[in-house]
Amino acid sequence: MSDDQRKIGITQPRQLRYYEWSLATGWTMVIAVLLAINFYHEKSQALETARTQARSNYQRDVIYRHWNAENAAVYVPITKDTQPNPYLADLPERDVITTQGKKLTLINPSYMTRLVFEMAAQSYGVKGHLTSLNPIRPKNLPDVWETAALKAFSGGSQEVSSVEKMVDGSYLRLMKPLKTDKDCLKCHRKQGYQVGEIRGGLSVAVPMEPLWVIARQNNILNSASFIVLWSIGLTSIFVGATRLRRTIRERDVAEREIIDLNQVLLTRAKELEAANRELDAFCSTVSHDLRAPLVSIVGFCQRILKTPADNHLDTCERYTGIILESAHKMEKLITTLLKFARITRDELTRTSVDLHGIADEISKEIEMNEPRRRAIFTIAADMTVNGDEALLRVVMQNLLGNAWKYTSKCAETLIEVGVTERDGKTVYFVRDNGIGFDNSQSEKMFEAFQRFANADEFEGTGIGLATVKRIITRHGGQIACDGEVGKGATFYFSL
Ligand code: HEC
Predict the structure, then answer these.
(1) What pLDDT is stored for residue 225 in this prediction?
(2) Contact of 454 with 447, CB cutoff 8 Å
(3) What is the pLDDT of residue 227?
């Protein structure tokens, strides 16, 4: 795998997934925090509303109480609900009778407040209570919460408020101190109060339930919009990431294609190099192998010209023989070269080919050409392959021909054609027990016109194995060889 390939397709998607999830988590957290802030805001809003309501109640009460105190006496007709205040019994003019004979009674601020509070509680649920740590009327005693608030006022507090559970639900309770002024002293002087002193406190309780209902409705609405926002965000993140991933994948594929293409070009370049090397070798053969017979032809022609007339005929006959032999050699060489060239060019025609049959035929032909040699041919049965019959015949001719050639000095010739497995692939082989070759040279074996030191004494053009390789490669197969000097050689090929 090249560096380029390693870079592609491994790091980015994993990083992208990490970013994607971090972004989604971050977004969820932002939404959650915003929603929490919203809930908190709704709650404090409800409380603030209740507090404002309580304060305005308090202020109104204080104002009409002052109005009452200022006038020192507010008379109302005596009814079933408005009875004379027993705590004012010592006042000489508590009850009066108008000139028309109507009975009126004096209403002090505290009494009036109580009467108004009763009405308020019935009509809009707001409760009020006038109280003191030291009440004239025992029923004006503070409850636990009010006692704490009254004590806080003596400590300097101006207002105390909190949400409290009361018998009929939760209320915002707010309490402020009531200070004594000179009007109050008209009735409260005898208890020892002085101007500015805290006479008691007025507590107001506003029911929270209606406000909580509003807050809850707002919360539901806000949650819904936040959920929509959250989903839009998440969808965008995931859709974006998916698109990005697709783009990356497409880019990877494109890059991989380029790499593959480069690989192909590289192989092509190597093939061209090999072809060039072959061409080089070809040229050197043309200059060496073709020149050798030519030189001899020229040499002997010159000798014929220089031969004295007396023994001219005899010598000429001998020389002409040599010249002809050289010419034959040249012709053979040229024919082989032409064949090799054709193999490189012609189209393949693939059919089912019986390798066993071909090997058998060729072995018999070879034996017939040299009937004096004895050899044992072992040819495996059932070797049917798919390929170009004519070209595969050339392969077998060359391999068996070589095997035959290089075993000519052996006492007993053993040639085997078979099929086996190499690296999990089916390969066919031709094995002999001839002179073999140096295994370190096995790479060079298949280059055109390469001949080995120990092969010098054998006839050959050096083109046979190059032809074989060319044919096998054109079939999409591979060829390899294995040998040891003096112990024989094996040629493997796959198709
Ligand atoms: C006309 C006489 C009168 C005046 C004026 C008056 N009060 Fe009272 N006040 C009373 C009486 C009587 C009570 C006790 C009975 C009741 O609750 O009605 C009382 C009760 C109270 C209480 C309730 C605690 C308790 O002692 O029972 C507070 C608090 C109070 N007054 C504050 C004031 C303040 C502050 C002023 C001045 C703005 C004031 N009053 C003016 C007659 C008066």
Answers:
(1) 96
(2) no
(3) 96
